[in-house]
Amino acid sequence: MAGEFEYLMSISESLEAGKWVAIIGNEVIAMGDSGKSVFEVAKKAHPKREPLIMRVPDNSIMLL
Q: d(Cα 60, Cα 46) in Å, to the nearest integer?
């Protein structure tokens, strides 16, 4: 899961704030307004993998 988080951080500025994303490996599998629907799309596409699901924060809020 660390790889997915690193990938998310590398593309975070190109993602729309407030949207939910599902990432597996170095690929955005799904993006949308609902965490549940994003998870369902990701699990349907990759049933044996665990996606990283996260709501994209506003860049002014993102602190690491």
A: 32
Q: pLDDT tens for the chain, 64 residues: list them.
A: 678 888 888 888 888 989 999 999 999 999 999 999 999 999 999 999 999 999 988 765 555 5
Report the predicted TM-score, pTM, of the whole model to 2 decimal places.
0.81
DSSP the chain: -HHHHHHHHHHGGGSPTT-EEEEETTEEEEEES-HHHHHHHHHHH-TTS--EEEEPPPTTT---
Tokens of 43: 């699990």
